[in-house]
Amino acid sequence: MVRFVSPKTLMAVVLAGAVLTGCGNRGGAGDRIPVDNFTAEQIYKRGEYELENSRKPDSAIYYFSEIERLYPYSEWAKRALIMQAYGYHKAKKYEEARGAAQRFIDTYPGDDDAAYAKYLLALSYYDQIDEVGRDQGLTFQALQALRDVIEEYPDSEYARSSILKFDLSFDHLAGKEMEIGRYYLKRGHYAAAINRFRVVVEEFQTTTHTPEALMRLVEAYLALGLTDEAQTAGAILGHNFQSSPFYQDAYNQLRGRGLTATPQGKSWLTDVYRQVIQGKWL
């Protein structure tokens, strides 16, 4: 007896077979199957499979984008769009990830996944920070995007991670100032070096680079013969970071000149010192 199989059931069987066949491949473009006759749910599941089992997420992105094309404005299209953003990010196609995440935010601003879309948008900047050399434009964009997640979705599961990444991004900016400052200091360009270390002390004082910046200021000011500023920088360092090895280094430099780590004269550093004593600096 021959049993009749409905077209819908047949399509599901074909899709399942395609998925099983795909177990041995790695998501190349040639392995993609035509999906015009499949339901949105079937295409979505295929995309999920590719995302989990392929080395490259390109095929998964293809299937998720096909849902948008075939079933626009559907619930599945909404879910597929956020998965596109995730797939692009996984593929390190950061501009495309930002584009998909932004489209989700613009189209579904009140959706529960809007927080995740904002987080993906921030990650697309954050994960490029180490690639940008001395151009810190992406770091500033990462800071702004992470701030948006923290301020707009403070109770979301992504806020805590965003706070941590914000602090690391902030520290990264300070680190770049230190890198340039050390470059100038090594070559005897003391005024240029001081300007960089001053930025760290005044604008990035909560980062891990502040103790070294103060020690380098002692070194640079001593090289210029500006002992008042050198002693004041040492005093700030001793007040806040006395257990730091950078303080011991600064102390030794000052003592070698017969100087002490006490505030002297009047400069931008004495203003900082007064703020430290009043508890307004840190």
From TrEMBL:
Topological category with respect to the lipid bilayer: Lipid-anchor
GO cellular component term, pick one: cell outer membrane
PROSITE patterns according to UniProt: PROKAR_LIPOPROTEIN
Family annotation (InterPro entries): BamD, BamD-like, TPR-like_helical_dom_sf
Pfam families in the cross-refs: YfiO (PF13525)
Keywords: Cell outer membrane, Lipoprotein, Membrane, Palmitate, Signal
Keyword hit for Transmembrane: no
Compartments, record wording: Cell outer membrane
Role played: Part of the outer membrane protein assembly complex, which is involved in assembly and insertion of beta-barrel proteins into the outer membrane.
Protein family (similarity comment): Belongs to the BamD family.
Self-association and partners: Part of the Bam complex.
Protein name, per record: Outer membrane protein assembly factor BamD
Species for this entry: Paracoccus aurantiacus
Annotated gene: bamD
